[in-house]
Design brief:
Layout lengths: L1 H6 L6 H4 L4 E5 L2 E4 L4 E4 L2 H4 L8 H12 L12 H18 L4 E3 L5 H16 L4 E4 L8 H5 L4 H5 L8 E4 L12 H9 L10 E4 L2 E2 L5 E2 L2 H13 L3 E5 L23 E4 L12 E4 L19 H14 L4 H21 L9 E4 L2 E5 L5 H11 L2 E2 L1 E3 L5 E4 L7 H29 L1
Parallel strand pairs: 3-15, 5-6, 5-7, 7-10, 10-11
Antiparallel strand pairs: 1-2, 2-3, 4-12, 8-9, 11-12, 13-14, 14-17, 16-17
Helix pairs in contact: 4-11, 5-11, 12-14, 13-14
Length: 426
Amino acid sequence: MSHIDQHESAVRSYSRGFPTMFRTARGAWLTDVHGRAYLDFFAGAGALNYGHNHPELKQPLLDYIAGDNITHGLDMATEARDRFIGAFHDILLAPRGLDYKLLFPGPTGTNAVEAALKLARKVTGRRTVVSFTNGFHGMTLGALSVTGNAFKRAGAGVALHDTVFMPFDGALGPDTDTLDVFENALTNPASGLDHPAAVIVEAVQGEGGINAASPEWLTRLSQLCQTHGIKLIWDDIQAGCGRTGTFFSFDGLDVEPDFVCLSKSLSGYGLPLSIVLVAPECDAFAPGEHNGTFRGNNHAFVTATAALETFWRDDAFAADVRDKAAHLAQRLSDIAAKVPGLRPGLRGRGLMQGVALAGEGTAEAVAAAAFERGLIMETSGAHDEVAKFLPPLTLTRGELDRGLDVFEAALLAVAREKDLAAKDAA
């Protein structure tokens, strides 16, 4: 990696955590230039829910490119755009009884969050946005203002305004409903909280530590927003597109957000694409009032449409994800039983689960040990204390078990090393 090491900015991160040069990828596997295969429990930080180079997505893309179809077209009408919008409506929205307009911002998740924040403020005429502890919503200034991580916020170099943070579900312990704090702030005229334009929330906080809010908490949050005339922005960028076992992480809940942000696995192939689902009464931007050069990635439209048609016509794929998620949870519980004090650290939902590991640097050490053994996984949480499982949803049960066997070996190896170090220090 001589050119990367010499000439790329120091801000690069994943090439440091996974120090090899990758060449090819298929399904749940990556292969480096030396021919070594790695099982991928990272999935492009959730951008590859259908794995690498899925053939049902790749072939339509190749055919589209070979036909000299439109690649870049701003937001001009193209057949690829029209087909995607139709498929999204017919496969996802109509069967759920949902009525949303599709807003295409720039191509990334943070662009979707920026657009939703901007539109919520426009339609309410208010500025304050409520976010939650450990929330992560992006790295551009608006999205960063509703992100809790102090390290990432410090990188802004300017003050981040108009956000108030409330405790996320469970942040004050298992016996406290943190929405009591929020409701008190809303109803107490001396709380200091300006009437919010919006609340932004993740059903499962991916970067914040795989913290999963309960259905009851999320439902009550939605009710509070409705009661007080606050727009609800649902950040489904990492938890959406099937990651929690349903396409939307709010499926099955008595909630209907005003805005839904989607990106990452939306294209199905790792191509940049994001959308904001907007309640019709909130569709208030004038033509061109919010735009961007790459707000219509036609190649991504092609693969996104193929993903919807391949995986979401019925519940079979989602049911398979839920089955593997239950197996993952059971295996993690079994592994945790072998490491004293670990069991309370299990968290998450669907194929978005994690294990909180005590001790500074423990989770990072486990991820490094897993990489040495051929498994790619990352950490999350305020202190990188959570070993994070984010495998492709399409991996087989055998691949899931193989990865978990590697994780168990890495965890036990690190635990032994720490135990020996503690004994030596004593």
